[in-house]
Structures are given as structure tokens and as C-alpha cells.
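Example record

The entry below shows one chain as it appears in the dataset: sequence first, then C-alpha cells.
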Amino acid sequence: MDSFLGALQQIKDSAAREYQVGSEESREAMIDARKLKELSPDGPRARNMLGSLRLPQAVRAVAGLPLDKEYNESRELVGIPFDVNNLPKKVGTLAGALGADLTQDGLRRVYWLLNAAQATGDIISEEVIARNRSDLYDLGPEVPTKKIGADGKPIMRRRGKYGGPGAIQAMSIPAGIAINTGLGLMTPFGGAEGYKAALPSEEDPSKTSNVLGEVAMKYIMGRTGNLLPYEDFKKVRPDVSPDEFGRYKAFKFDKSLDVDLGDGDVGLPGGALKYTSEGIHGPEVQFLGRSLPVTTGIVPFASAVAGAALGGKYGGAKPVRRGFYGGTAGLVVGQIAGNIIESERRRRNTVENELDGTLR
């Protein structure tokens, strides 16, 4: 009985201790660990996000899987080590970590970061670039700050070898432009071709009633206008027949699970992620309701990321600048190639519609 009560007490103590670990403490440990690795505190967002996420680390500790040496040391220094040297402590640690994650929205913050195509694109771009230039986030030499230490001398600080996070993230700007263009967010004066403006005017819904508001809706909220009625839509998109238009709208608003590859459509429950091989933009991915064409969205994005990664990798002492130039070149090549493919697809479909008499 005493051993049972003792085990319960250990579970309780371990759960209470783990539950009280805050997200800022985990982030502090992550930053200290990166410094021990001679890395800038501001790494790729995916690595920083996962590096400061406590629950997966706790699961690894409880499972007895190896933990990163520098992270273990930094957790000790911050005062939040994992104490999992027996079964009751493992049970308590896991229970406390789960409770803390629910309370502090740990895993949900991952979803909140990735719940837009632009953010997911940025994460992918940063990670690909970082993997192709291993020293991109290394620390540079110490430089004095304006802060004075107890000895009366300026406190020294080490920044990133190639500048701060803003400079490095500039390498992903071309990839971001590709994603936003593919989503139809780079049209400040109205909707993309065949779409209403986010703030449509009464005279012409394809034009905006407020340019500043249109920019704000698209940049801040990622909102685009809906499809125009077919009678107006076909004036700018004669390549799309009424039947194709109707099927596309049905696909767009269908949120059921679809794993039948035979019809060219695939969808996850709730419409979180869907794909069609025959949309009004050709092959198309829909991510949380946002349409991203393969030819005019994903192809330019992939080529921009590849260009930035190659520019950074072979950029010598100037990887950021060369990476930006490489990404820009990749964006231009990808957009030209994607638009040529899409223009030819539309031309061919327009001819077929005219010959079949399917446009009404």
C-alpha cells in the first residue's frame, strides 16, 4: 500500500511540475540550445516552432528516445529538465505535458501557423533554403552593444553570420510572391480573372470599390472574391463550358472525404485539402478553401524556391543577396513556363467549346 501511495504521489508531483512549464521557458531553452550549437536564435520558423514545443520533447523523454545534448543542457540551465527515471514519473510527466499543451495551445499554434497557404509556403521555402546552405544561421563575431555591463564595458552580442532574420527571410520573398499570385491576391484593383473583387463595386463586381480596402482584405485576411456569375465569367474565360463551371463549383464546395482517384478529384474531410486534375485553372490544389493552380501557382513557387536555394548554396560570402536573385530568376522562369502551359490549355479548350457549341 505504501509503495502504491508513493507511486501516486510521484505521478502527482511529476504532473504538477510538468504542467507548470511555460511556453516562454521552453522558448528560452530553445534559444540557449541554439547558442550552444553556435547558431543564431532566429532559425527557420519550423525549427524554432518545433524546438520550443514541449509536448513532443516530453513524449520522446517518456519513451526513452535519445534527446538532443544541447537541448538537454539548456533545459537544465533554465530549470525545466525532464525527470523520467521511473514509471510513475513518466506517467506524471506525460499527463502534465498533455495538460499544459491543451492549456497553452501548444499544438494548436502549429496549426494556426500553417492554416494558410502563404504561411505553409514560407515554412517550406525557409527549410529548403536552410538545408542547402548549412551555415546560413550560424552566429557571427561578437559586436559591442550600447548596454553597459557591471564592469563598465559594453556588453557584447553575436548576431547572425549573414545578418538578422529579416535579411535571411528576404530570400523567400519571390516564393511568397508566387504563392500570392497563384491565390489571386496580387490584384489590388479588383478580382482575378473571372472573379469578383473582395470589395466589389456595384457597377462592376470584378472591380473594387475601395483599393486600400481591397489590398487590406487580401494582404491581411487573405480574402478573395467569389466566382462571377457564369454569364459574366464566360466573357473573360470562354475556355470554360457551363458544365465545367458547374462541376468546378460543386468540387469547390464539397467537403466530404473523396479517395476515388478515378475521377481526378481527391479530398480530405472538411475540405482541408483537395485536388482536382480538371479545374477551371487546370490541375489545382485547394488548401483550406484557397485555390492554388499547379501551373500558375505551384510551378512558379517550386522554381522560386529552387532558385533561392541554389543561389544561397553557391552564393559564397553573399548567400542572402545571391539567394534573393536566384529566387527572383526562378520566379520569372516559373511564371513564364506556367503561363505558357495554362494559355495553351485555355486556347485548346476554347477551340473545343466553339466547335462543340457548348458556350451558351
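Notes for this example: The chain has a mean pLDDT of 90. The beta strands are 139-148, 154-160, 265-267, 273-279, 282-287, 290-293.
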